[in-house]
Amino acid sequence: MRKILLVRFGEVFLKGQNRPFFMKKLTDHIQEAVRSVGGHVWLGEGRIYVSDFTDIDECIRRVTRVFGVHSVSPAVEMEKDDFNAICAEAVEMMRPLSGTFKVLARRSDKKYPLNSPEIMRQAGGCILSHLPQLKVDVNNPDHVMMIEIREKAYLSVERIPAVEGMPMGTNGKACLLLSGGIDSPVAGFMIAKRGVELCCVHYHSFPYTSERAREKVLELARQLSEYCGKMRVYVVPFTEIQMQIHQKCPDNYTTLIMRRYMMRIAEILANQDGAQALITGESVGQVASQTMEALGCTDEVVSMPIFRPMIGMDKSEIIERAKKIGTFETSSLPYEDCCTVFTPKHPTTHPKKELIRKAEEVLDSDKLIAAAIEQTEIVEVG
Ligand code: ATP
Ligand code: MG
Q1: Does residue 255 come out as left (phi exceeding 0), alpha (psi in the -120 to 50 range) or beta?
Q2: What is the pTM (predicted TM-score) of this model?
Q3: Which tens digit of pLDDT belongs to each residue from 235-252?
């Protein structure tokens, strides 16, 4: 008899010919996630199992963050021949609980001497006779004792919901523009949840932004990597570009021109990294650079799709999600972002594309971009 974890996955993506590919990805990611707690992962019928972990709570925390995992149950694995022993263990597992319960049984071993209704009846009767604090409720019980007879017998009561989504790497790769703010980590999370692998680009304006601001962004990337696995972060020096824009372009257009450079550089790095789309944390109307016209101006400089999963969300909804994912606290640290360093007094909210193109002509775009990419630092996180 030993403690293991039963891992359930969503059924939707398991249809059709892709199934082996999805399952391989999912088991690999779970194995990767539990490596540091010594966990061993294997695929059974309709379930993934984890055993041999050193710290069950940490193991559960990690597995519930793997995209594609639906729920996790701590379970006892035991030999199936001695049904009395199974009933005795079921009683032990239910002993600390009170309220109502039912027993559910599943039997993939059709040669097993008891069928599912018999297992439920006998185990339920045994629990009732030993534990007077419990009552049966088959419709809406507080607890479900699950007994599964497969290669061995598996008993579980607790079911911990996991992150769901699709296994990482089953839907290509995208490049997240990661600031130190609240929105962009959540945006990255939402796209990654659909099975999209991430790489990140961060622009910093040293010495106008501090080393601590950079560390904060790397910490956010590390927090994201708890869900997405290892990620590459491109840390791009942006000071020279910002200074040039600040000196040579009309004040009310500087923010937007800066954002166009962010997109251009991100697209180049994304291409180098094999990513097929960009991701930002923008939301309609949140700031001057996120009006409809402004978004149109940033879109026109790249040909890759730009995913903006927060586009229709209120700040309060984004904050709620950031708290749930676990990035909110770090995002709220008060370090400056490069966007706030050279903020113009009156950024335009109704920019004209022709005017922006004209305003940019004074800049030696190719040279500025090449220099920024040349000095980009690559940091691996996760
Ligand atoms: P966030 O909370 O994500 O910083 P925001 O509401 O502060 O967003 P902006 O500062 O206008 O809005 O940034 C919009 C988007 O541009 C961000 O969500 C992010 O994707 C990208 N971005 C902004 N600053 C940076 C940066 N320094 N490095 C990389 N991407 C950035
Ligand atoms: Mg920001």
Answers
A1: alpha
A2: 0.91
A3: 999 999 999 999 999 999
